[in-house]
Amino acid sequence: MLAQFAVLLGIAGLLIVGMFVYPRWRVRRAVHKAFPLAYSAILRRDLPQYRHLAPDLQWQLKKRIQQFLFEKTFVGCAGLEVTDQMRVLIAARACMLLLNRETEVYPGLSHILIYPSVFVVPREFRTEDGLTVESRQVLSGESWSDGRVLLAWDQVMPPEGQIPGHDVVMHEFAHQLDGEDGVVDGAPDLGSQQRYQVWSRVMRDCYRRHAQMLAHGEHSTIDAYGQTNAAEFFAVSTETFFTNPHGLSMEFPDLFRLLRQFYHVDPREWAGS
């Protein structure tokens, strides 16, 4: 009986080890494969920042993309057929937010749903007198807390080209980062109370200044949608940080420095050159 128990215990131990070790081994194997030449061509053609990244950042981005593509499932919606271009570009823009950072590749995310164009989602809200009202909202992207991100492909790759300060993929994946501490509130996992205090102060001050600029009819590099709430201000600021870093650094230098410290990159080094 003792021998049988020992065998069963050993088998159970192997199974438990396999549950944790085998998935990590599969990820490492996928990441260590050569990056496909066709994927590199997509990056060079369709991701302007990639061409100006330092070699070590290009290498980092490729490895992150490989892990992202291995772990996440892409689903075409409304008849859309998902292509390698869609998968690689979405993964690349999402992983731009992870460069130089010791972090997992969106561990809470499992599926990316891609629509051909803007899509409609149902909404419910309560009026002041307590009535529940149903509505429909047209969206170009949305981040959900259940492991899904929804994107409209014609907004990921707009026919007229990217507008500085706008990137729907970076916006929605900033929400994913924001939610990694359990709540989407405009403050991602920062690791220490001191960093949270600095983050709160800078974000609050810049949010108020942004509101004042809009109230006075002044143009801002940060889209007006950022005034929706703190979470949207962080997401919109992230878009601007990566796609219009020079404008953000001049208009909101404190916010730029805060995001540079969080993301561990300075996009001015590879933007617009």
Automatic annotation (TrEMBL):
Membrane-crossing segments per the record: 6-23
Superkingdom field: Bacteria
Keyword Membrane attached: yes
Pfam families: Peptidase_M90
InterPro entries listed in its UniProt record: MetalloPept_cat_dom_sf, MtfA_fam, MtfA_N
Keyword Zinc appears in the UniProt entry: no
Keywords, in A-Z order: Membrane, Transmembrane, Transmembrane helix
Protein name: Zinc-dependent peptidase
